[in-house]
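User: I'm curious whether this sequence folds into something compact or stays loose and floppy. Could you predict its structure so I can see for myself?
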Amino acid sequence: MGGETTEAWRTVLDNLIARGLRGPEFLIVDGAAGLEKAIATLWNGVPLQRCTVHKHRNLLAHAPERLH
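Assistant: Here's the prediction. I'll summarize afterward.
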């Protein structure tokens, strides 16, 4: 489908479920808003955590060099 829209991620997740993926107990995501929304529609209430590596990379990419 291209992109990281909610619809694209929902298609991926629906396919995984159709192939036997069980409901998760805990999820770690990279911060893609579409993925988080798709997860919420399927598994609302499942604990979700942002990957700390992705979060730190994002912060460093936007912080001035003097704050690295």
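Summary: Residues 40 and 46 are 8 Å apart (CA to CA). The chain has one domain: 6-67.
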